[in-house]
Amino acid sequence: MRRALCLMAVALAACAGDPPPPPELPAVTQYTSTPVAEERLALGKDIPAQWWTLFRSPALDGLVRRALDNSPTLARAQARLRQAQEDLSARDGAQLPKLDAKLSSNRVDVDPQSLGVPALPVAMPLDLHLASISVSYTFDFAGGTRRELEGLRAEVDHQQYELEAARLMLAGNVVTTAIREASLREQIAASEEIVALQARQLAIAERMEALGGVARVDVVAQQRDLAQARAALPDLRRDLERMRHRLALFVGAPPEAPALAEFRLAELELPAELPLSLPSQLARQRPDIRSAEALLARAGAQVGVATANLYPHLTLSAQLGALATSPGDLFAGGNGFYLLGASLVYPLFRGGELQARRRSAVAAYEQAGAAYQETVLQALQNVADVLRALEADAARLKERADAEERALRLRDITAKRLAAGGVSQAAVLEATRQHRRAMLEKTQAAADRYADSAALLQALGGGWWQEAK
User: Fold this and answer.
1) I need a surface site. Which of 132, 136, 141, 162 has the fewest CB within 10 A?
2) How far does CA 7 lie from the centroid of its chain?
3) If you average pLDDT over residues 365-374, what whole number do you get?
4) What is the widest separation between alpha-carbon atoms in the chain?
5) Which residues fall within 8 angstroms of residue 352, CB to CB, at 6 or more apart?
6) By mean pLDDT, which of 113-127, 250-264, 272-286 is the weakest?
7) pLDDT tier at 106 (50, 70, 90 boundaries)?
8) Distance (Å, whole) CA 184 – CA 174
9) Residue 244 to residues 235, 249, 253, 452, Cα–Cα distance (Å)
10) DSSP 8-state class, residue 211
11) 381, 241, 374, 271: which is closest to 42 by C-alpha?
12) End-to-end Cα, the chain, rounded Å
């Protein structure tokens, strides 16, 4: 009998089998088809866990840490992880032999006439008291429990990586929002200066019109330009308030929360070096890829569970106890009993249900495999897009800086010509306004480069794996 059970266990374990192999991923050696013109890239260098500190801003570091400590989004992800861990612990304990103690008291009253006898050998009603200990164990011959535990472990991994992904997303959102806020502050300051300059230009034009020095059309054009410049300010101020509200949300505070740091680009330092992981490392570093991989493992385990359900389940049980009409006699001699049992359940006919469930599990596994493949490809695209954005940022910032320098030189030359009597005050104001506009465009280009530097560090995984070192 024992040998037969062993042979059946081996056969069932072999029948359960494994799911189909996961999809093959493309062998990638570089992110882009041509080299990226960004001199700050450090190929193969690892990313620090607190990657946002590369911007050298204590205020930014403090805000990110505050968000990581107080965000309700992270609290929800942490609770999901704890739930998955407890589900695994519960199922892990359920696979052990079950041991239960039972005490019961029942009153039995039987009418002798209903049994066709004049009287019973015992007086009715009768009290029966039972005390017993039972143990049972279901053998995992087909590997269903083992695969179920594998699936629960994969779910724990999935929730762990989802938590890391949420942390990475939160840190990235705080950094990019702070950069956006800093950019908006400088845009507002520059726009206010431009409005003031245009107001002075308009006042000069109106005086000259009164003296007959300029036509009415020139004054109207100045009024139009001033109105357009003033119209841009409300939108900029609204966007700045939105950034402040968003930062408050990230740290788990209401929109009117005080004491949030204010950011300016001059207080941030552009990372002098950007670590760039090799494409072959990306799948181990991106938490969203690791999460998709865990879902694939969970789906594979479900195939094993569905396969095991096609085969018999053997359960052994035993019960030891005592039965008496009085509680005091439960532990007296002669009242004890024991029961030994074994049950073998074999699914003979389920109308194709079990086979369909296995086919469904295989289809779910194939879906998870395709999702995993898609996640990897999207991650590679994400990094490639950011690299090209950094390349464009560098070129645009260079051109904006050159334009700002030339506008400054033009303003200085115009100011000297004014001193020599060669031009009017209006010409100097116009040159100054053009310089302020060039500064505004340079600020926007610089902010884009800051934001895309953060985006690259985020796209590469954010260095979360460094925390364990």
Assistant:
1) 136
2) 46
3) 94
4) 139
5) none
6) 113-127
7) confident
8) 15
9) 14, 9, 11, 20
10) T
11) 271
12) 52
How many C-beta neighbours within 10 Å does residue 47 have? 23
Residues 6+ apart with CB under 8 A from 66: 251
Per-residue pLDDT tens for 389-408? 999 999 999 999 999 999 99
Q: What is the pTM of this model?
A: 0.84
Could you tell me which residues come within 8 angstroms of residue 410 by beta carbon, excluding any fewer than 6 positions away? Answer: 431, 434, 435
CATH number at 376 reads: 1.20.1600.10
- In a domain, residue 224? The reply is no
| Residue 443 · residue 265 · CB < 8 Å | yes
Q: How many domains does the chain have?
A: 1
11 located within any domain? no
Instruction: List helix spans (H) across 211-348.
Output: 216-250, 279-285, 287-308
* Residue 76 located in a structural domain: yes
Report which secondary-structure segment, H or E, holds 127: strand 126-138
Three-state secondary-structure class, residue 117: coil
CA distance 376 to 144: 30
Residue 365 lies in domain? 22-95+151-189+246-286+361-468
pLDDT per position as a tens digit, 183-237: 999 999 999 998 998 888 888 888 887 877 778 887 888 888 889 889 999 999 9
Domain-embedded: residue 310: no
CA atoms of 40 and 55, how far apart (whole Å): 14
Return the residue matching tokens 């115009």.
Answer: 414
Residue found by looking up tokens 């939108």 in the block: 235
